[in-house]
Write a structure and sequence with these properties.
Layout (H helix, E strand, L loop, with lengths): L1 H9 L9 H14 L4 H13 L12 H28 L14 E8 L2 E8 L20 E3 L4 E4 H7 L4 H12 L1
Parallel strand pairs: 1-4
Antiparallel strand pairs: 1-2, 3-4
Length: 177
């Protein structure tokens, strides 16, 4: 009821008096928000209200809260995955596959037409799609890996130099360890 009344105030309308109208409105809101866990209800409401086109003078719909809840769940999941990836970058031992950092693909610098290009190569681990998975990992005798997981063919580095200054700096930092 508090959210219904709060919405009325935001719309510049009088509060709904206790009785049939409030009970009817409450049933509609309960139906629209029943799938939203309590810990998400307030955030979902604020998100929905913040994105509602108030200037169009359109009445606020409770279904917007359910839509906002779905968006927040996806955002929270993406945020958790990003946090996990960032934590894993700080501690490489947390990856199941050190070669692709659990992404399924390895970025490989290749030298062609007098320029360095970056290409993605499917890894050989379970993170890569089965139909693309490589049979073998990149050979450490043929490729050099920098600190963030980029690869370059050793022969190309010897012949043309490092692909980027960041790649070189990362290799130099790893060599000092």
């Amino acid at each position: 009821m508090a959210l219904i009344q709060q919405t009325q105030k935001r719309r510049g309308l009088p509060l709904i008096a206790a009785g049939f109208e409030l009970q009817s409105t409450l049933k509609g809101w309960e139906s629209a928000t029943k799938a939203i866990p309590d810990e998400y209800l307030s955030r979902s409401y604020e998100h929905a209200v913040g994105n509602w086109p108030w200037t169009e003078r359109k009445g606020f719909e409770a279904d917007a809260i359910a839509d906002a809840y779905k968006i927040l769940v996806v955002e929270d999941k993406q945020r958790a995955e990003a946090t996990k990836r960032n934590a894993a970058r700080q501690n490489p031992d947390t990856y199941r596959c050190w070669h692709c950092q659990d992404v399924g693909y390895q970025s490989v610098f290749t030298y062609q037409n007098k320029l360095w290009y970056v290409a993605l190569r499917p890894c050989y681990c379970e993170a890569a799609p089965v139909e693309q998975r490589q049979e073998f990992r990149l050979s450490e005798t043929d490729f050099v890996r920098d600190g963030v997981g980029n690869y370059a063919r050793l022969v190309d580095i010897e012949k043309y130099g490092y692909p980027t200054e960041a790649f070189k700096a990362s290799i130099d930092a790893l060599a000092k360890r």
